[in-house]
Write a structure and sequence with these properties.
Aldehyde Dehydrogenase, Chain A, domain 1; 5-stranded parallel sheet; about 40% helix; alpha/beta; 7-stranded mixed sheet; 21 strands; Aldehyde Dehydrogenase, Chain A, domain 2
Length: about 475
Amino acid sequence: MSTKPMDAHSNYVDGDWTQSESGETFEVRNPADETEVVGTYQASTRSDAERAVEAAVGTQDAWAGTPAPERGGFLRATAERLDERKEEVTELLVREEGKTLSEAGGEVGRAIDVFHYYAEKARDLGGTAKASSAPDRTLGTRREPLGTVGLITPWNYPIAIPAWKLAPAIAAGNTAVIKPASAAPGMTRVLFECFDEAGLPAGVANYVTGSGSTIGSVVGEHPDIDAVSFTGSTAVGTSVAQAASEDLKRVQCEMGGKNPTVVTESADVDEAVEIVGVGAFGTTGQSCTACSRAIVHEDVHDEFVDAMVDYAESLDVGPGLEDPDMGPQVSRSELDSTLEYVDVAHEDGGTLETGGNRLTGESYEDGFFVEPTVLSGIESDMRIAQEEVFGPLLSVIRVDSFDEAMAVANDVEFGLSASIVTRDLGEANRFIDGIEAGVVKVNEKTTGVELHAPFGGYKNSSTNTYREQGDAGIDFFTSTKTVYTNY
């Protein structure tokens, strides 16, 4: 285990906490109170990132040769150390990203579970035995690591997403270099402190902070990186995928969403409002799977809108450490973007039913707080119904039939998560068959996924190559070798 530096906000390269050669740093501030500096991190250079890749490549063969159950043991030890620090880490997540205490605690718990899960999956790594068509011959497959992988992660789930990329990569025998989002890098730093305390061998996992244009380009394009896994916006993910494909790297990008919940005429309206409300306003709407569009049958539309307005207005908004219903947006730019989309919707003919304003005064003054917002009178061709809004803004679209609801639900370039609220089994199954989304839910919110099930989207929500989580996580980080043995 390396000696933890006085400045805990260093990079972690080849088993050591290191400063950037640039000597420059950047600050991360509390989105509930921008006067508070939560942490200072390295503004790393391209050379810093290249050294991290070199370290990962240097230990690649030794790590691949480590027995898989032994690799899993390091993940288990990491999970145990993270669990010991859960309360502290949860508070840091709140202060750095803005989630409520309940949301942050759930996310830290998810990261712990992910490491335990892949610690056990490491025991199952192997292959399959097939029947050979010839005598005196065996036929089978084996799973082998890809080599060194580059990971680029977002700020909205700053510990869960790094966990579900790092854990399967390491379990499968790869070495890794990760570049976390600059808005919330502290959670990844905590994971690396736990790696260090667990005795993970030097060079297996490396962590470098800095700008996406500088560090992200190295992680995504370096010739010694064998695969890239990215989560973030569609625009950046598309660029990452194109750059990685130039030298045939394996690539996996999970990107944006414009997720619908269809509310049919048979739905229980109170249940629908709860499902849509949690999906739209939970995590301040800052989730790629957040419900952005409620597509509601005309027979229940007015009742739904009235109840949804009551729901939104009942939510307690405040600093995450007070554990309200909804915290702030992560930054001023995200807040400004949400408010801009309210104006865009109004200009296009939408009706602002409630919200749409920045919250000010008292505990709101120095934070990025916005009212939960409900818009009605939205048409499918409006910008607000087509473009991703990463904030607590729900557009309600009226339809006159199930078929129209399906057409509207699919009338976007995204296809990540989608749900339906109905008491008609036929409608539920028609929805499952016809919806263009990678995650489909019946009578559930669009947000929230199980760690042992595949996760990913259709259309511009994904590169449509490999899924994440569960067995799919191992699939991405391994290559299959087919072996014929004539004895």
